[in-house]
Amino acid sequence: MVWLVWIGAAFALAGLCGLGWCITAAAKARRTGLQGQAMQDRLRRLVVVNLSAMGLSALGLMMVVVGVMLT
């Protein structure tokens, strides 16, 4: 089950990259000085990406744990 560990690690890494992208996108939106509805719309889209990245990362970590337990 070593392949499950490696695939899980790749998923977890992809999730972490997605979280990093969300952080930089939110910081960029703040630096540009968006206010009001424009800022809410941008952050609302980022929340979807953020939750997806968290889910992908959690799925990857679960795959790693299951792979280690089965090895």
Describe the structure.
With 71 residues, the protein is mainly alpha-helical. It has one domain. Helices cover 90% and strands 0% of the residues. It has helices spanning 2-31, 37-70. It is rod-shaped and about 50 Å long. The N and C termini lie close together (6 Å).
Which structural traits does this protein have?
71 residues, mainly alpha
How much is the average pLDDT?
93
Pick out the low-confidence regions: none
From the N-terminal CA to the C-terminal CA, the straight-line distance is 6 Å
Main sheet overview: none
Q: Kindly give the count of domains.
A: 1
Helical/strand content category: mainly alpha
Q: Percent of residues in helical segments?
A: over 70%
How big a fraction of the residues is strand?
Answer: under 5%
Principal-axis shape equals: rod-shaped
Order of helices and strands: HH
Number of helices: 2
Topology, number of strands: 0
Radius of gyration, whole Å: 16 Å
SSE layout:
Blueprint: H1 2-31, H2 37-70
Briefly summarize what is shown.
The chain has 71 residues and is an all-alpha fold.
